[in-house]
Write a structure and sequence with these properties.
11 strands; globular; 124 residues; seven-stranded mixed beta sheet
Length: 124
């Protein structure tokens, strides 16, 4: 099994920044892709950004392009999401997800492993 633990969320004013971290443990050799999703109250869980463990290729949702950056530290089995120029509409629970297939998928159904989620609140 793979365990994912997110950290770094919290409350920030509009225009501010936050960095989320997701630490993987357990059978981490099963991980080839890690992504961030988010879910606002009453809405679907949406893809935000993903990264391939080997090579570091990335992919972003349109809402994240130019403001968010995903990166990974293979030695620490950790993926990060740097979020800049935050907006109130970025408020959501952010989830880290991982999958074995080395393709960045944008559907939550394609991910086998999930963190517990962490709240990000952006005040106006």
């Amino acid at each position: 099994q793979v365990q994912l633990v997110e950290s770094g969320g919290g409350l920030v004013q509009a225009g501010g920044s936050l960095r989320l971290s997701c630490a993987a443990s357990g059978l981490t050799f099963n991980i080839n892709t890690m992504s961030w999703f988010r879910q606002a109250p009453g809405k679907e869980r949406d893809f935000v950004a993903g990264i391939k463990w080997s090579g570091g290729s990335t992919y972003y949702a349109d809402s994240a392009k130019g403001r968010f950056a995903i990166s990974r530290d293979n030695a620490k089995n950790t993926v990060y999401l740097q979020m800049n120029s935050l907006k109130p509409e970025d408020t959501a629970v952010y989830f880290c997800a991982a999958r074995r297939v080395p393709v960045i998928a944008t559907s939550q159904r394609d991910y086998s492993y999930w963190g517990q989620g962490i709240q990000v609140t952006v005040s106006s």
